[in-house]
Amino acid sequence: MIKDKKLVVVLPAYNAEKTLRQTYSEIPFDIVDEVVLVDDASHDDTLKAAKSLGINHAIRHENNKGYGANQKTCYNKSLELGADIIIMVHPDYQYTPQLIHSMAYLIANEVYPVVLGSRILGKGALNGGMPKYKYIANRFLTLFQNIMMSQKLSEYHTGFRAFSADVLRSINFNSNSDDFVFDNQMLSQIFQAGFEIAEITCPTKYFSEASSINFSRSVKYGLGVVITSICYRLQKMGLAKFEIFDPVIIPTKKAGT
Length: 257
Description:
Layout: E1 7-13, H1 17-25, E2 34-39, H2 46-52, E3 57-60, H3 67-80, E4 85-88, H4 100-108, E5 114-118, H5 124-127, H6 132-149, E6 161-164, H7 165-170, H8 182-192, E7 197-201, H9 215-236
Parallel strand pairs: 1-2, 1-4, 2-3, 5-7
Antiparallel strand pairs: 4-6, 5-6
């Protein structure tokens, strides 16, 4: 059952004008209550496109703050709206929102508090056009992370993610990087807090309008992933303490306040 849970979809957007409508059209509004779009100072008309679609919670960063900072705004706004379940979908149409039903069901029925749409389960990544160097890097980084974190995820790098609001209230995501490594810091925080993560197979599409970081940014991201995994391990072993792993409780917003 999902109907008694408030479900908010968040769209961290950057130059998504050309793909936003197609992404939005596949959002299942039979269970989705609100959509939050954050435009990270796009150079196109992403915000205008969002408003034309009737997205009431369309927010614009006047300066480009980064992918991680975009997600912080998305999650803080969704919690402010009183969400029970928050699902992040990239508005570049690389992932299909048609999986929202399945992801939300697992959380609403308390099977898992976090669900990832994995491009690696099955053959979705390469069939969808993922560059081979990114696929290989994904596999090596995931192997390293699983070893360091004692986990068994198929990948840590997907941008299709669903969370219980309780998870977001329990981790210090606002202390994370404003850059792409935010995603990995967040997963390490979730494991550190003792939550389990489920995965479902997710097809993916790579095409000219889909967002993708270049090789140099990919290298920087990869180094950040390695550092995050090492920090997690050191924290688990009690050999060091890092701010991102400090627990934090975000108060639930009361109706009428």
